[in-house]
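Researcher: Structure for this, please.
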Amino acid sequence: MKESYLIPAFRETVHSRFPAREAEINAAFEKRLTQLRAENSGASKEKQRHLESQILPGIAAYETLQSVMPKEEALETVHAYVERKAWRLKKFFLKLMRIPGLYKKVPEIFAKQTPKLFGTTAGFAADEIQVSGGVWRIDMTKCPYNDACVKYGCPELCHCFCDSDDITYDGLHPKLIWRRTKTLGRGGDCCDFCLKRSDI
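Model: Predicted structure, token format:
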């Protein structure tokens, strides 16, 4: 599996900010990540994709950074990693949206891909409100990002991942509306996702 973008970002922070303790801090991070992986080794292949790409490296980085900086700064640092990734992804999607008429298919694409990438086997659960007619609207009632952050005592870390969704999908096209008023990670009873066309 491809290395998470969070790992080189963490190492760069350590290298630039704490060169005298670089080996020590990196070793602590690797030890914690290895422990987290062992504790979650029984997860499905679909869930492992999320655990490895963001969740476990994010938790390990956040915990390790707290040993060398205040908790609030550690959170801001990890948030910056996730935010940079989200902006890169948005830049890619904005290029795709230049294809004439492609925006019309986006809600349908979300409807088809969500069960595959964010389905029950990956640790998610959702109630479909409307997934046709130019509207993708679901209430996500279970999320492994929130579950893991709560389990490991860092629920505030989940905000990073919630924020990345808003960065990535808001404003993709003038005729696409992204809306979400609450998330599990921010204390809501669900993540009320809605992406819809404004021209129908």
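Researcher: Any notable elements?
Model: The CA atoms of residues 13 and 19 lie 9 Å apart. Residues 71-96 form the longest helix (26 residues).
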